[in-house]
Model the fold of this input.
Amino acid sequence: MKKKYLTTIQLFVFLGVMLFSAFSFGQVGIGTSTPEGALDLNSQNLPVNQYYGLVLPRVALTDATVPAPVINPDNPGDPLPIGTVVYNTNTTYTGLNDVSPGIYMWNGVDWINEFPKKDAEIFKQDMSSEFRTQSTGGYVTIPGLLNQSFTPKYTGRYKIELSVNYGGGYADNLAGGKTNPLSQKGIFKLTFNGVDYLVPISSHSTYGTTQYYLIWEQATTVMYQTLTKGTSYNFTLQFDQLASPGFVSNGNSGTGKGYIGYDIPCSVEFVYVD
Done:
């Protein structure tokens, strides 16, 4: 089918007709003589079950907070009108105010993605029973986080957020009843897709007139991975408590053991961001 292009005179005539129609009736119809809104687009002249679509201005945004390269049509120096809609063709990877291909609307402050792709899943520690650790046990698996798998809906960049917490056990009376602050330490290991990611952590306990223990430390680490749609990615979360001199039974039994996820479960969350 041969495309038809308007000459300059034809374009002005067309715009004049549209403006006259808008001023006269308050409604404009393209492809229809009975518009049902301020602007009504119709492809009624095409064969049955064939239609044209509306093509929005295609621009390459660089930041969700930056209007450019879109400008105010009346005065480029004035703020961009609220409600301006474009189709963004660019993808950014700054980690802050990123944009990805799709329809965006300017709200006066930010470009809002009108139809973002959403895919998120969180895996949590099984909290049905208390989980304690010991210093001579080596790496032990966090309940509920053994050989789990995540299958992404899309191909692209995912944010993987690991949230862990650890509390120390009872300190021993090594200072003759005097306050004796101690630190109990360990390492979380997330094995994802065959690669180990380590997160060191420590907690604090004291022995004295009042004993303090299970002063848990929470840590969060974020990494970005490019995943493939429909592929199953396996992961396991483990913890290894380091040597704990100064704790009851050196952190190996009884009240000297540490705590994992006492109040808040450890978790691994996947969120599609690109």
